[in-house]
Amino acid sequence: MPWLVDATIALGLSALSLITVASGASAAGGSDPLSVTLLLLETLPLIVRRRWPIPVFGVTLAATVAHAFLAEGQIVNESLGALVALFTVAERYDRRVSVAAALVAAASFTAVIFTRSSGQQLAVTGFLSTMLAIVVVLALGDWSRTRGRYAAAIEENARLQEAEREERSRRAVDDERERIARELHDIVTHHVSVIVIQAGAGLTALDRRPEGARSALEAIDRTGREALTDMRRMLGILGAPRDVENATADDPTREPMPGLERLGRLIEEVRAAGLPVELSMEGVRPPVDAGIELSAYRIVQEALTNTLKHAQGARARVRIAYEPRAIDIEVTDEGGTGRRDVGQGAGGGRGLVGMRERVALYAGEFEAAPTSTGFRVHARLPLDSKPTVDR
């Protein structure tokens, strides 16, 4: 601890001075109370040298000069206490302050040496050794201050890097939460829309067409199970490792997230809900990244869900065109009744925002706007694009 080091230095130098006085050395001055007090003032204040560097330097230097004039007939050597205090000033303050303190110490010691020395040669020798000691102490203090600032800069840089890593981690968590929210929205919106429509159809056919009601209930059961499977599959990444280890090979939640190969099933679901859909695939399918596949599937799913919800009685057409460097997706509908701009037009619901974000994630192109006969959603996903985290 710093205070323990300072206390050890102060008490050690004080004990050394008192032992010198007790041994009768004339260079230490007399053993009278004033001399002993001045000797202690040269060293004991070093206990608080880090807290009050300049006051401690002033007290130790003044006590050293005052005590020098009590050692009559002796060549007074510079005080170690004052030099330690000077080192602290050089370590704690900038160079301008430390140099000023060193000049004050040099002038004080020079006055004492040339005033109290018994010979010219001794005075010059004492002056040179004292000046050398002051320069060395000043250089050591300045080096210590520079080293401390460098260490502080390294520590601050490490702190900033750690804060940046935490910020990146936080952003990654936020992005993942947003992705999960988008997936949940797409899954729940689509399947619940199908269930509601099928439930309405089943109620209508319950009395007059029992077989139609049975088909509607079977579609509701099938759609509900698929919705649960999709949500479990997506949220499985949040499960405990034990859950993953205990999952069986035929567990449907272990299947990959849906891609364009599931478009057929999606179209059948929508048709069963009462929306006639025409699907056309153009071009030769190239290797497609799983993330792009999922985005393409969700865009088609969301567009058809919007048609189901907001354009009753409409007809829809889905076109998937495979190009060498992109997938072109177009979902159009025509006819039907309802508020066609709700959830689809500019500034609309979460569905449109989700589709636009999926396309922006891969630096693609997106367009959604009413047509003269219905509504059109168009997306273009580059195949060689990587997801952009910061959009």
Please give a structural write-up.
- The protein is of the alpha+beta class and 391 residues long.
- Among the domains are: 2-118, no CATH class; 259-391, Heat Shock Protein 90 (2-Layer Sandwich).
- It contains eleven helices and five strands, in the order H-H-H-H-H-H-H-H-H-E-H-E-E-H-E-E.
- It has a five-stranded mixed beta sheet, covered by helices on one side.
- The longest helix is centred in the middle third of the chain and has 86 residues, at 120-205.
Short structural summary:
By secondary structure, this protein is an alpha+beta fold. The protein has helices at residues 2-22, 33-41, 53-68, 80-92, 95-116, 120-205, 210-235, 241-246, 263-272, 290-310, 350-361; strands at 277-282, 312-322, 326-337, 365-370, 374-382. Residues 73-78, 239-245 and 341-348 have low confidence and may be disordered.
Give the CATH superfamily of the domain at 259-391. Answer: Histidine kinase-like ATPase, C-terminal domain
Q: Low-confidence parts, pLDDT < 50 over ≥5 residues?
A: 73-78, 239-245, 341-348
Strand order of the largest sheet: 1-2-3-5-4
Question: How is the CATH topology of the domain at 259-391 named?
Answer: Heat Shock Protein 90
